[in-house]
């Protein structure tokens, strides 16, 4: 086995500014290219475009009416019209076949070429046809209602400058100039090499027993590359074999403007990459004084730039967003979106004193007044779920010891398209809740369990906590209502072991799959064990010890039932609704309430009101009734 | 000829809200579809995604170190380590081939599967290998440094809700769940039918003598459709032939969710469309009380929705942005960008009293403090150049009589990607100026000529005016410096008519092509004519009358030279630089100064300072010297 104990230590961490400079010093910008007009939106002009023709290209009638010689109409008015001989007509898109002489007029439509001789147009509303003549009731000066050739755009004029971003209106001007091939800045090609023997592409079969996991970083970073104006190219995964890694990295470097490696947290893979860059390219720096991202590598490989990203998904996205995306945008000629950064207030006090720049992943929410609140997430857990909890990053200076509650901070969003949730809910996961959330605009729910949910609600950050079972609710909160659900033991279909109830778990040698201590349904189970213990005159702990698997508590509400479905357990703690969904048997142990409790400071926040209304509607339209064992419950306390 | 005098009058104009409702009532939303994960960025989830697997799928070491039974380490510390027998190693991505018994340990790397028997990991830093054993210098509890299966995402949990916009981080979560095909909202297909016999597609040959013009609206609106989340489909142009129009519209309706007609201002074409919709579909409304866009049609055709847009480019984009784009976004499930609207102050007072909603195209600029200023552009001129001068639209209520200078207004941008210019310059067009502008970040220049430029500078809106020739500069302004240029008569190559100077224009029957009265070079010409008249003791007007073509004044600075190149004139008013560029002959009549004059309220605005610096640099690096007849001039007055 390679590397576990001899992996490289990064000692001389460079300043983050040095890393920015090193990445800026790399040349990512590809050559300019030409794209069809229909594909030019969102691109950036590579060079100035001068008009090569007049718009319009001819003297053009700008009204429906009659083309005349202006001086023929002098003196005409409503009372004393001038009568001109009609000599023909000119339609838009045709070449005039008439000439307008003295005392003559030709019918003309908007956009038509002015016939020779005519220098003005009388609008149709001020005329009247009288046989082969037209009575003109107004005087026009030469040039009236005529747009001279080149009035709009003159040939030779600077139309659009280099660096102009092409939005619909610029596309319009290019159309007017007849340009169907547009010279634009090239999009840098970015090769992404994932490292780690354990990575599997989404869609492929996952062999969990071998420790395989789906590759998260490749697709996340590829999407980030495209968003920054680059073109992403995914390369096969590389393990920590030197020859393979070298071959892949060099292939990517030959084909791309920038190569990013990303994926594994394996120190040995980082070591191998380090050696490849040192031997086949130029390592500019390794190790940056930033958290996360300490082991970041920056260098050159063949004629391409190279940056190595950290392995954890949020860390990889953070380093990409902070150091790499700006370089890709720069190379593509795109400015950073104005909404890539938002300002908010810290919802909690956050301590920090580690002596290096911290790029702190944060979530956003809104207070009752609609002001943005910011709270830290993912304290280095490496969890992929943090990806959707974290909206962006706050850069905390090395000499900042803490961020105070209420302190203003700037959040660099992970994407300009990131939308802060309209509601932050935490607590007990539940299938009815999932359906309820589907009816809301843009909610965020963190399934941390009832106890942890209440604890967080007490901390003041979330808008609401979802609490199930006999959990102590001693947190200042407002009851928004809820529902009840039947809980018990999920068993195989047909209940082959003939499990009759809780006593069977205690008295027989059955393999049980429990939920974790934060789950409300676990509190219901513990209460039932307590009751049985009292009946039998023994301690609760004694009964719990007798249940095989009591100590193993899964976080997911379906996990025990899925263990039963896989044949890994004889019984699992769960809901009737889950058993029914998975086609399993169910032994009821009771009914528990699920309630939504709101942060007292947020009851009038739109997202909370929307939830409250959705809850009410759901009670009426059968959302709960459609789930086995569910019932809407009437509101237990004042709103 | 059809329609000029019998075109439909729209009498009963409906309220704009009714038009919004009518368009909302149309069903544009296509079916959901499935796209590969790599193409899912920017799309919107069509349905809720629940996790169908645990992440991680196995109990996972979260540190490099040794997998142990936690209870074996109880009591271990630096002073008194516990020694465990090494039984093997587990690497990430491989299935463990060891089992950890009592008193045993297995080397393990981050991300590897926990071997059977082990329940905790001791980090490598707190251990030391001693032969076939490992000394453990810290106690770990069961579960320490282990991420249990499902801790990150539990199978059965709601992962992403319907309507979620997919940014890189959501792509990451989908990857983690192994999802490579994503159910997303369909993008509405929008067919665009241009009307007008005179329209030609960019890239095709333009026959100006027939009054042909390039089709601006099709590409502009197509880009707007794509930006709003739809897919645009361009159809061939239709004239005002009923059969052809019917065939095209019905074909588009059969293939698309929405059909837009756009292009011509021809009333007869609108009439024909009106009849097609009435006969083959359902006309919901015709005519909306809004300026522009009065003749807007809304209806259904076959199973598709139909909206008719006005013909002038800015009007078409305005109506599209206000009425149609929101419906496309709604159908695609996309929210409007937060930066689609900006707030600013009116830079000028603007009167309005027409009794219907006015969608006023406006330009943006910044004052010295960086605050956004808003000014009206394109008062119904139909000019395509307004497309790049207008940044968006201000909706002015029917009962608003005027917008005061300084009044706050909300501007709906034509695109969230529209960037307000860093500099608003107006005045004399000039090839050196074009090169200078190329060096600035995002300037806007309106080539209105020296006189009009000065007038506008006096009005207080622009940042700078570029003024050439002997034009009265009686406007309060600050001189930023400038250059000089040689002007005179552009003649055919080799000067076949042997034009010697101004006197030849007066005395011989030569066809002359002049510039318009706003041009500074025209002022130079007029001054030279004045001088010649004085020499001869006649009036200036007498000499001017003797010049054939004196009254025809083009707006474009290259236009006279281009007329000479085409053989349409014997001599044209212009610059030595232009003659050289076009390979023509030149008869010098003198040198004139070109100066940049700044608005006194904007001299410290970054864009103006940038221009000032660019001007200085250009004087040093040869920008002027590279143009025939040009010279940098020293600054004439205080800065």
Automatic annotation (TrEMBL), chains A, B:
One Pfam assignment: PBP_like
CDD domains recorded: MoeA (cd00887)
Record pathway: Cofactor biosynthesis; molybdopterin biosynthesis
A molecular function (GO) term: molybdopterin molybdotransferase activity
GO BP: any one term: Mo-molybdopterin cofactor biosynthetic process
Domain of life of the organism encoding this protein: Archaea
Gene Ontology, cellular component aspect: cytoplasm
UniProt entry keywords in alphabetical sequence: Molybdenum cofactor biosynthesis
Domain MoaB/Mog: 191-330
PANTHER family assigned to the protein according to its UniProt record, in alphabetical order: GEPHYRIN (PTHR10192:SF5), MOLYBDOPTERIN BIOSYNTHESIS PROTEIN (PTHR10192)
Name of this protein: Molybdopterin biosynthesis protein
């Amino acid at each position: 086995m390679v590397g576990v104990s001899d992996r490289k230590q990064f000692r001389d961490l460079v300043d983050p500014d040095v890393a920015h400079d090193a990445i800026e010093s790399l040349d990512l910008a590809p050559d300019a290219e030409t794209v069809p007009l229909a594909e030019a939106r969102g691109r950036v002009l590579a060079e100035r475009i001068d008009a090569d023709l007049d718009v319009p290209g001819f003297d053009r009638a700008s009204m429906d009416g009659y083309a005349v010689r202006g001086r023929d109409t002098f003196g005409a008015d409503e009372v004393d019209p001038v009568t001109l001989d009609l000599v023909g007509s000119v339609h838009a898109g045709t070449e005039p076949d008439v000439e307008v002489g003295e005392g003559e007029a030709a019918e003309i439509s908007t956009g038509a070429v002015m016939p020779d001789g005519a220098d003005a147009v009388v609008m149709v509303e001020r005329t009247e046809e009288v046989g082969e003549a037209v009575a003109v009731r107004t005087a026009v000066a030469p040039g009236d209602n005529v747009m001279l050739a080149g009035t709009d755009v003159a040939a030779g004029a600077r139309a659009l400058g280099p660096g102009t971003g092409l939005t619909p209106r610029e596309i319009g001007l290019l159309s007017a100039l007849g340009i169907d091939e547009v010279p634009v800045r090239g999009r840098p090609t970015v090769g992404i090499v994932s490292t780690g023997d354990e990575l599997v592409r989404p869609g492929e079969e996952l062999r969990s027993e071998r420790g395989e996991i789906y590759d998260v970083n490749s697709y996340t970073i590829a999407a980030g590359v495209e968003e920054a104006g680059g073109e992403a190219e995914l390369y096969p995964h590389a393990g920590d074999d030197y020859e393979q890694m070298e071959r892949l990295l060099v292939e990517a470097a030959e084909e791309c403007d920038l190569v990013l490696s990303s994926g594994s947290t394996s120190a040995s893979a980082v070591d191998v990459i380090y050696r490849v860059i040192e031997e086949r390219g130029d390592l500019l720096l390794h190790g940056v004084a930033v958290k996360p991202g300490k082991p970041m590598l920056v260098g050159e490989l063949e004629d391409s730039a190279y940056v190595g990203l950290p392995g954890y998904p949020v860390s990889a996205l953070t380093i990409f967003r902070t150091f790499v995306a700006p370089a890709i945008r720069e190379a593509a000629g795109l400015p950073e979106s104005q909404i890539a950064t938002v300002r908010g207030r810290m919802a909690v006090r956050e301590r920090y004193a580690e002596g290096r720049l911290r790029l702190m992943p944060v979530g956003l929410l809104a207070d009752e007044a609609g002001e943005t609140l910011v709270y830290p997430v993912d304290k280095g857990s490496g969890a992929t779920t943090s990806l959707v909890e974290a909206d962006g990053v706050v850069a905390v200076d090395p000499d900042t010891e803490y961020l105070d509650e209420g302190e203003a901070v700037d959040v660099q969003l992970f994407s300009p398209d990131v939308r802060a949730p309209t509601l932050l809910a935490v607590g007990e996961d539940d299938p009815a809740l999932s359906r309820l959330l589907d009816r809301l605009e843009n909610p965020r729910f963190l399934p941390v369990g009832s106890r942890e949910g209440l604890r967080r609600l007490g901390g003041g950050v979330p808008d609401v906590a979802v609490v199930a079972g006999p959990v102590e609710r001693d947190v200042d909160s407002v009851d928004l209502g809820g529902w009840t659900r039947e809980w018990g033991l999920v068993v195989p279909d047909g209940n082959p072991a003939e499990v009759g109830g809780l006593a069977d778990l205690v008295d027989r040698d059955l393999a049980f799959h429990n939920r974790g201590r934060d789950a409300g349904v676990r509190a219901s189970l513990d209460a039932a064990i307590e009751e049985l213990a009292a009946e039998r005159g023994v301690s609760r702990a004694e009964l719990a010890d007798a249940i095989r698997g009591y100590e193993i508590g899964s976080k997911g509400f379906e996990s025990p039932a899925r263990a039963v479905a896989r044949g890994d357990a004889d019984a699992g703690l769960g809901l009737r609704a889950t058993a029914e969904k998975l086609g399993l048997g169910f032994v009821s142990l009771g009914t528990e309430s699920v309630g939504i409790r709101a942060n007292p400071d947020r009851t009038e926040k739109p997202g909370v009101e929307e939830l409250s209304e959705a809850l009410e509607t759901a009670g009426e339209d059968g959302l709960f009734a459609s789930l086995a064992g569910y019932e809407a419950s009437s509101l237990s306390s004042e709103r």
